[in-house]
Amino acid sequence: MNDFQAIADRVEIEALRGEFTDAAMMRDRPRLASLFTPNGALRMPNIPAEMVGPEEIRAGGERLQSQWDFFVQNTHPGTILLDGDTATGRAYIQELARTLDGREGLNYAVYHDRYQRTAEGWKFAERVYEVRYLDTSPLAGTAPHATQGSGTDPADATAAPAPAASFADPASVEQLERVAAALRAGGFAAEILDDAAAARARIKDLVPEGASVLTGASETLRLSGIDDDINAGGRYDAIRPRALAIDRATGADEIRRLVASPEFVVNSVAAVTETGSLVLASGSGSQLPANAGGAAHAVWIVGAQKVVPDLSTALRRVEEHALPLENARAQAAYGVPSAVNRLLVLNAEPRPGRGTVLLLREAIGY
User: Fold this and answer.
1) Residue 300 DSSP label
2) Which of 86, 104, 147, 360 has a Cα-to-Cα distance from 113 of 20 to 30 A?
3) How many CB atoms lie within 10 A of CB 243?
4) What residues does 344 pair with on adjacent strands?
């Protein structure tokens, strides 16, 4: 290899590292994922997160970015050691970030890299992120949340928020596939089904006869017929009718224990993000323990209109769309208003295989 080729390789690798930062800053996850080889890995032990392959890297990036209020990354040149069609190197990073839940800080980090020459140019074979310094002191500055976002992605934190009317529109096939991939990357099982009738049939495969099953208070379950199948069909040990038969004044503890740890919980969600998070809202919180992990197995049936880009939009959907509809239903059924007193966000499933999400191509529930 002549000196000119070595210089060209170094320039291209340095450009690759700059492209990574630009894609991260612009929240262009497909472009970021395309910078890796088919088996390329992005490992971040300090997060912790580990993603292998472009699809996992794209989905994992969406999950992380959905938590940002703002994020700034600067990449500084480091070392590059060429070895034919492979290379190793280090890039030095400075970052400022604040998340939607209020965490914030400044850090200095190192990317330990392996590179591979491909037909499309140099790509990352592996990036390993190592934090060398972290300062979590409150940041003095703010990010201008106006409408001057890049417009390259619906999840851009500075972009104009989606109109509430869109919360009733079904997601596209491509969006559903992105959601399914992100859920699988987070340890959930995910299936895309045509409609509620298909979900109703699939429940019989997923939940064995005789199992103890708790259903959530869900319009999706009611409208699909799944609620009746479980609670009135005689096939299962239905928890909800048993709990409703107990006197609430004298049996509150019994009810609490009964609904907290069934074999199965079958429910819907208020929103599912393209980054692979499930969001459940509740007035009393009674159904949340089983969904969070108390049930040995969980199945969530999700209408196509519940897909949103990220967590911040999911919370807006809860407040602006689901709550008004549930409030009207509660007023008519019980004579009392509804409220979002408890929120549960499931970002991943620590026990792979425990939770199954049935994503429907049709809109159902709210």
Assistant:
1) E
2) 104
3) 17
4) 280
pLDDT 10s digits, 51-60 = 999 989 988 8
CA distance 156 to 4: 40
Residue whose C-alpha is closest to residue 57's, from 28, 22, 96, 77: 28
Q: How far apart are CA 243 and CA 66, in angstroms?
A: 37
- Sheet-wide strand order for 307-308: 307-308, 271-273, 278-282, 342-346
Residue pointed to by tokens 């190592």: 130
Cα 40-1-36 angle, rounded to 5 deg: 10
Q: Is there a contact between 52 and 39 (Cβ–Cβ < 8 Å)? A: yes
The residue count of the chain comes to 366
Say if CB 56 and CB 265 are below 8 A apart.
Answer: no
Do residues 320 and 285 make contact, with C-beta atoms less than 8 angstroms apart?
Answer: no
Q: Note the pLDDT of residue 144.
A: 61
- Residue of 78, 87, 76 whose CA lies nearest to 9: 87
How many Å apart are CA 47 and CA 131, to the nearest integer?
10
First to last CA, the chain: 62
What is the spatial distance between Cα 256 and Cα 247, in angstroms, rounded to a whole number?
12
Strand partners of residue 117? 122
Cα separations (Å) of 71 from 27, 65, 144, 148? 10, 9, 12, 16
Contacts of 338 (CB under 8 A, 6+ apart): 283, 323, 326, 327, 329, 330, 331
As a whole number of angstroms, the distance between CA 220 and CA 134 comes to: 45
| pLDDT cut 70: percent of the chain above it | 92
pTM for the model = 0.58
